């Protein structure tokens, strides 16, 4: 069995945290582009059915890849602390459920009927996020247990009330609270669930992880070709579609390879191998693109392979810059986004709500062209800095 040796046990990789931080800043940035006008088309999402991708289409897959990269380290660290496989499985399930719950609540806000529900979408999102923090905050150990349980119970009660009062859709076709699509967090939850269980039961065997990645990559092509039997479509699309899980498993394989080669202190061989793998992935993207196109919204195989290659190249470059050259201090302003990532993701919902409550309207020049892009970048950085400040006062999400 390919079990991790002591020399393989890398507990924390600065480049992964840095890549996660930069990816989250980009995610907040591109999610704010809706507020701008007269900006380059290559920054935005490409519509479904269109062959191509913009910067916004490369951010989400990068995050999924990073989720996978972290898994071998997280599971090995928990095993080292004494967690059994059953305990690890319970943690994986509970974390996945948390992401699915968050995703479903935020998705319902997209189609809320404000008059029938009694609140606008911005208020719904902010209240949901406040409840998420109450439920999943990592409370200080010094806080009395009864107080922690009370705050968590309050958060659960808020979500239950919201689900009860929710009405969505048009006035003449109101619908109740229900899963629609899973939302970004829900998609991450499904991909994480499958990839984490594969990582758990592979027990560090690289061959098993690589076979799992190949299987889901093949499933991505089968699904794109319309060859998945209809009876299997009851399985959530993030799983049966293959693409999102393959993105995450690609990160898992990369993380395990890094453990092995870093344990041998062979950075040159590791770099050469990662560049070779990236080149092969780009080749696979070029080969599959003529069949199903390159599209994020359609989750095509070409998008899977190309974004995996981009993320692998970015990680390799950041590893040399941060872990080898020791220049990670260049990115100190975005560091909280690498360690308080989920909290950073929720921050825009609060800021949008505050801006709305204050009836603030940005001057037209701040929403146009290059100046608008600077505004959106500053908005993303403010979200990161607020999340870092909240961590210092004891607010830190931990699933």
What are the key terms here?
399 residues, 67% helix, mainly alpha
Describe the structure.
The relative contact order is 0.17. This protein has helices at 14-31, 56-80, 85-110, 114-117, 121-136, 145-165, 183-202, 206-224, 237-240, 243-263, 267-292, 301-324, 336-339, 341-357, 369-392. The chain is globular and about 60 Å long. The two termini are 30 Å apart. The longest helix has 26 residues, at 85-110. The protein is an all-alpha fold and 399 residues long. The chain has one domain (6-111, 180-392). The chain has 15 helices and no strands.
End-to-end Cα distance, whole Å, is 30 Å
Given helix and strand content, the structural type is mainly alpha
Helical amount among residues, as a percent range? Answer: 55-70%
Mean of all residue-level pLDDT scores:
92
Number of E-type strands = 0
Biggest β-sheet strands, sense, barrel: none
H-E order: HHHHHHHHHHHHHHH
Please tally the helical runs, counting DSSP H or I stretches of 4 or more residues.
15
Low-confidence parts lasting 5 or more residues at pLDDT below 50? 1-8
Count of individual domains: 1
Shape descriptor: globular
Kindly provide the radius of gyration, computed on alpha-carbon positions and rounded to a whole number of angstroms.
Answer: 21 Å
Beta-strand level of the residues, as a percent range?
under 5%
